[in-house]
Amino acid sequence: MTAHERDLPRPAKTHTVTVAHAGGEERRGPVTLGQANMIRCMLRDEPEHINIHDVWPVPAGTRTDAVIDALRALAVRHEALRTTFPHVAGAVPREQVVAAEGEFTVTVLDHEEPLPDAERYADAVARRARAERFRLDRDFGLRISLVTVGGAPVSVALAASHTVTDVSALAVLEEDWLALLAGGPLPPQTAFTPLDLAAEEASPAGLRKSAASLRYWERIIRTGPQAMFDGPGAEGTEIVTPEVTLRSLRGARALARVAERTGGLPSTVLLTAWCALVAHRTGQDACVAAVPTSNRFHDRLVRSVNTVSQDALLALDVRVPSFDALLAKAWGAALDAYRHSRFDAVALWEMIDRTTFERGSRFARDVVFNDVSALPGTEGSGAAPDGPDLELGRGPSQVLPTRLLAFVHETAPLLRIGLWADPALFAPGEAEGFLTGLVRLLEAAAEEDVPLASLTGVTGVRPVERGPDWIRVDGCWVSPPAVADALGDALGGVPVHVTADGDGPGDGKGPGEGLTAFLAPGGAPLSPAEAHAALMHVLPGRPGVLAPRRYVIVQAPPEAADRTDAWLRQHILTEGNGRTPADPT
After folding, report:
1. Cα–Cα distances in Å, from 239 out to 242, 373, 430?
2. For the sheet containing 572-576, what is the strand order?
3. Residue 513 predicted with pLDDT over 90
4. Is the bond into 413 cis (omega within 30 degrees of 0)?
5. 447-473: string of b/e by CB count within 10 Å (b at 16+)?
């Protein structure tokens, strides 16, 4: 239990209600691509990292039995909630089974006194429920707690199996649940069920889409930056990261004015501003970011209760003069990403492993931008704007396998964003400064086109500072001395000198299309293929290291071991690219 949880009130009474449901249709079939992706994650990752959660405030005056009846109706209406994944022990599930009937439980947490911060309490309850692993072969997909005060429902706190729902699906469920509580009719079911989607994915057209997605991803991974963050501090993984929150009327008003001035969609304007600022902060020529929610671009996926959790990978080249020019490119780049967000996850990672070995890189999912503002139930109320001009706050910390994660919860009438920034890369106050800088960029772009060269002055966000040994090679920022150190360590202390292709004698500072490594293993036999394999083995966690395109094995190191021309005068034993056993040159 965390200190945050210890501060929370404890319920006076707790009891569990078993809820039976019936009336559905029994079905079975293959898993979807998104389910397969999440099954891999759930079998590999800690449950609190991969399970998701949500809190649904209960409308005042609602009875407990009405809350439970509406939850029962959700289970009957949505096949995903009645879905399990049978499999033998040790095997990966490949089939889903939809039950016609079944049961689930609701844990009622009753408090005698009103809760001082009901939302915070319910969020902590839901987060705590994430820590228990879901059994894929038998568990109901929602772990539900009902928070009550004096017997009156206040909120539903739930953890969800990521194999049956994602953030978008939870928003659809909440909207349906509220409609059921209000006694209104629910719209007809027109969205894909998981089994409908699995059938569509297995069709010839669906298989062509998956193959096209792999080609799209391979192009980005082969040519884009291998990591958005590459300097010191970007080595670790699974970092405990505090949330920074932004609530801003100023930001929402500026976003609306930029959209009006340029004719762009507000969502595209915000994405453009985000990418511009991320690329500026990291000093990259492109912003490569995962945009997970955006893969619901198909009409029959928008309201699908399912997990469609596959990244849309955005690669936006920022080498343009101004914000408006970048905005003109952003919609096409985003649409390209959305269209290529359906793939076989196993085939994708096989491709990534092959491509990164050939390139000599290690792909890092450093930046995630998740705009959930357009999901059901998250639209602005249409009431008069109420909120701060610009307020920054703090939320719970999370363990994240990424460097920069943003959730856009609302864009009008309030701009509301949650940001998690790796504290090893963002000094105290820098994450807050990044969000403030985003608002300042929107305000500047609301008045006129903004030169991208002026972003430091406009936003107050400064680019990362790299040392004199860093150069841009093959679209990535690389430190040749770091490459030499990593390669030498991987080979047990073999003398190594690394230079950028095209450098003059003794000049290691200029840009190049690739690197050449000179190695002097002494009397020990060493091939370029062995050198490359050894470096690739130690590459994870070294984002500033890119493998050389060429390995040159020499008899002995020169006295002037820091000079390329001295290494070139040594007797060469063998050379090659190291990517294949034959070492083709």
Report:
1. 10, 26, 17
2. 496-500, 515-519, 550-554, 572-576
3. no
4. yes
5. eeebebeebeebbebeebebeeebbbb
Distances (CA, A) of 45 to 137, 342, 436, 565: 17, 22, 34, 49
Amino acid identity, position 240: V
pLDDT in tens, 271-316: 999 999 999 999 999 999 999 865 676 788 889 999 987 889 999 9
> What is d(CA 432, CA 434) in angstroms, rounded to the nearest whole number?
5
In angstroms, the CA 578 to CA 585 distance is: 9
Q: How is residue 294 written in tokens?
A: 């955006």
Cβ burial of 184 (10 Å; 0-12, 13-18, 19+) is exposed
* 402 and 369 Cβ atoms separated by less than 8 Å: no
Q: Is the pTM of this model over 0.90?
A: no
- Which residue, among 200, 226, 511, has the nearest Cα to 361 in the 3D structure? 226
Please report, as a single letter, which amino acid is at residue 14. T
* DSSP of 431-477: HHHHHHHHHHHHHHHHHS--BGGGHHHHH-PPPPP--TT-EEETTEE
Quickly state the pLDDT bin for 383 (edges 50, 70, 90).
very low
Give the β-pairing of 142-149 and 152-160.
antiparallel
At residue 585, does pLDDT exceed 50? no
Asked if the model's pLDDT at residue 421 lies above 60, the reply is yes
How far the first Cα of the chain sits from its last, in Å, is: 58
Mean of the per-residue pLDDT values of the chain: 91
- Nearest CA-CA partner of 273 in 479, 442, 494, 466: 442
Res. 264: pLDDT tops 70 = yes
Q: What length is written for the chain?
A: 585
CA-closest candidate to residue 517, choices 482, 478, 548, 562: 548
Indicate the DSSP class of residue 322.
B
pLDDT-wise least confident of 29-43, 129-143, 289-303:
289-303
Chain position carrying tokens 């990535």: 476
What pLDDT does residue 161 have? Answer: 96
